[in-house]
């Protein structure tokens, strides 16, 4: 028996999975909503759907594999027909904060390679302006103090992400700062400033990378384009 929140995730996942067509190269994002997408794509494979998946995290890769999805390496991928991924926050302008699960770097590569990026969310993630969810910033360990200082200079409050008592480690062997910048008036400007800091591998501001957002809202799925 799944609760109503899980049911919403499942509904929006089913809608997104319908968009995958035979022969597609499909970017597979990360997170609990994506897990439902992967399960549904696995079910459609049994009905004869043929496609190749590209994973945005090791966890997604393992799950996709367990559902019989044929996978190709992200690093060997030069184009993706459609990608599906979750988000932690979004606006109607299709700006996102991602990286709550720590997979932001590979997720951004997947989105950047995609002709069509579909985001699966629910109404709790919709905001007028980004910034209630701290911006995840993946930092190379040797740049820890330097990056922390730069983030503070930009007006942020960086908190190192922990997993149990240890620093959280990404699939790429790096740390993550969750940075409170307050309300983000201009996501494109902040993204550009973060892009310019040496030692940041990637950040979770996704600006102009999304084609469509599918939002579960009770029994319906609302689309933002
Ligand atoms: C992982 C992500 C996820 O897509 C994001 O955290 C949303 O996950 P969920 O569907 O579990 O709410 O960005 O890095």
UniProtKB/TrEMBL annotation:
Q: Reaction catalysed? A: aldehydo-D-ribose 5-phosphate = D-ribulose 5-phosphate
UniProt-listed InterPro entries: NagB/RpiA_transferase-like (IPR037171), Ribose5P_isomerase_typA_subgr (IPR020672), Ribose5P_isomerase_type_A (IPR004788)
One Pfam family for this entry, by name?
Answer: Rib_5-P_isom_A
Give GO terms: molecular function aspect only.
Answer: ribose-5-phosphate isomerase activity
- Subunit-structure text: Homodimer.
- Higher taxonomy: Bacteria, Pseudomonadati, Bacteroidota, Cytophagia, Cytophagales
Query: Does this entry carry the keyword Isomerase?
Result: yes
For substrate, which residues are the binding ones? Answer: 30-33, 98-101, 125
Q: Name one GO cellular component term.
A: cytosol
Q: Which family does it belong to?
A: Belongs to the ribose 5-phosphate isomerase family.
**Record keywords:** Isomerase
Q: What is its EC number?
A: 5.3.1.6
Quote the pathway field: Carbohydrate degradation; pentose phosphate pathway; D-ribose 5-phosphate from D-ribulose 5-phosphate (non-oxidative stage): step 1/1
Q: Where is the active site?
A: 107
Family matches, as SUPFAM superfamilies? D-ribose-5-phosphate isomerase (RpiA), lid domain, NagB/RpiA/CoA transferase-like
Where on the tree of life does the source sit, at the highest rank?
Bacteria
- What is the protein name for this chain? Ribose-5-phosphate isomerase A
Gene3D superfamilies in UniProt:
3.30.70.260, 3.40.50.1360
The entry's function note states: Catalyzes the reversible conversion of ribose-5-phosphate to ribulose 5-phosphate.
Question: Which Gene Ontology terms describe the biological processes this protein takes part in?
Answer: D-ribose metabolic process; pentose-phosphate shunt, non-oxidative branch
